[in-house]
Amino acid sequence: MPMQQHDARRATAPPGGPLDGVSETALWTVRMRAQESARADALFDDRLAAEFLDAAGAAGAPPGRGVLQKVLPDWLAVRTRFFDDHLLTATRAGRAQVVLLGAGLDTRAFRLDWPAGTHVFEVDLPAVQTFKQGVLAGRSPDGTRRTPVAADLLGDWRGALLAAGFDPRRPTAWLCEGLLYYLAPDAVERLIGTVSGLSAPGSSLGAECLNAATADSPFMKPWLEALSGSGTPWVWHLADAEHWWGGYGWRARVADLPALPYAVERFAPHLDAFAGVETDSMMLVTATLSAGGR
């Protein structure tokens, strides 16, 4: 599910005002987070999501009316829970720096029980940061340091992150959630090359990737066509996650979603209702940087 597109267009937003243009995708996501948080069986609790919606006004919905659109809210819930657990495991193992790339309206800095001393960097476009700070004005997370970094991931975000206090000598937990598939292949390569260059051995990474093998399937193709028609195309697909990430020094694995009880419970109604729904169309990748990978 998309969080934020980073392409040639730019969003403009006054403090506390509505987002527009590419940032509309951030509102799709935060609306589903608010809906999930209201459920009795919620997989996470994002109490700030409703405040972002109130500040933004009307939030649109993802384009199209296919099978995948019906699955999206539950996919987002599973994805969020998976990366919540991944980041907490990473920080409890000693990775005290967390970098959320294309953070959008993510509130993990506030809602997760981070180990003492964790520093969360949130990197996103200036307009997104302005809107987000307008809603969060006067608040800071308990026991965790949070640093917004206003930067374009197609520009010199490396310099902005270093200037914000990021230390490349310390192992880091990186997250690319709802981001990479919006970027052109060469942009993804530059981004991950920069991430790898900034990562000390032992750093971890989480990323959501579109499986190239299922991009033309009856399940995925209508969704991808709807996104393209709305001006927010997914343009980066991944065929072999372990091999691709290994080229940058990362030991990667794709999550086995059927092994996660909460994922099985959420997806079961969809699998019963829609024959042929692929469970591997979207890949949740986690990786660790080897000692010689940098």
Summarize the topology.
Elements: H1 24-37, H2 49-56, H3 67-92, E1 97-101, H4 108-111, E2 119-124, H5 126-136, E3 145-150, H6 157-163, E4 172-176, H7 185-198, E5 204-210, H8 221-229, H9 241-246, E6 250-254, H10 261-273, E7 282-289
Parallel strand pairs: 1-2, 1-4, 2-3, 4-5
Antiparallel strand pairs: 5-7, 6-7
Helix pairs in contact: 1-2, 1-3, 3-10
Provide a descriptive summary of the structure in words.
It is a single chain. The chain is an alpha/beta fold. It has a single domain (21-289), classed as Rossmann fold (3-Layer(aba) Sandwich). It contains ten helices and seven strands. The protein has a seven-stranded mixed sheet with strand order 3-2-1-4-5-7-6, sandwiched between helices. Strand 2, helix 5 (126-136) and strand 3 (145-150) form a beta-alpha-beta unit. Helix 1 (24-37) crosses helix 2, helix 1 packs across helix 3 (67-92) and helix 3 (67-92) packs antiparallel against helix 10. The longest helix has 26 residues, at 67-92. The relative contact order is 0.15.
Summarize the structure.
This protein has one domain (21-289): Vaccinia Virus protein VP39 (Rossmann fold).
How would you characterize the largest beta sheet?
Answer: 7 strands, mixed
Q: In which order are the strands of the major sheet placed?
A: 3-2-1-4-5-7-6
* Helix content estimate: 25-40%
Mean pLDDT: 88
CATH topology call: Rossmann fold
CATH architecture: 3-Layer(aba) Sandwich
Tell me the name of the CATH class: Alpha Beta
* Basic shape: globular
Strand content: 5-15%
State the end-to-end CA separation. 30 Å
Q: What radius of gyration results from the CA coordinates?
A: 18 Å
Total number of beta strands: 7
